[in-house]
What does this fold into?
Amino acid sequence: MSEESSPRSADSAILERLGRMWQEADPPPPGLADDLVAFVAAAGVESEWADMHLVMSDDLAGVRAASDAKTLEFELGAIALLVRVAPESSTTGRIDGWLTIEDADIPTGTFVTLVADDGDRTTHVDDAGRFEFSGIRESPWRLRFSFSDSTQLIQTPHRQW
It folds into this structure.
């Protein structure tokens, strides 16, 4: 099979045509990239987890009891965050989280703030990297971390339980 007729080159050709089609049919607005850079800079947050994915959803995992608990994982360089979000009642939820830093201890004085529509709440991250929030109303939220040994803030994208 020649290089030109390989499945890989056929896939590449299809993807190129598809990319050109979308570029012509729905191009990004002029200045979008510059506007986004300015918006992120104005937000005053140095880093945001971009790599987030649903690790497990208990209601899809084949467990015996019905549950809406979800486990999310965020990674940013050497920092990893595992968050379990579960309902507490018909109107509130709970977040249990574990923060780890590769090859390092959690700095003393590390705090996490739950930023939500009904107000911000802050708690201490313990030496094992664990933290929790309960009584969370159903609304978009994000977690913002501050470290005593740095002025850097790190936050998750908005989520809703």
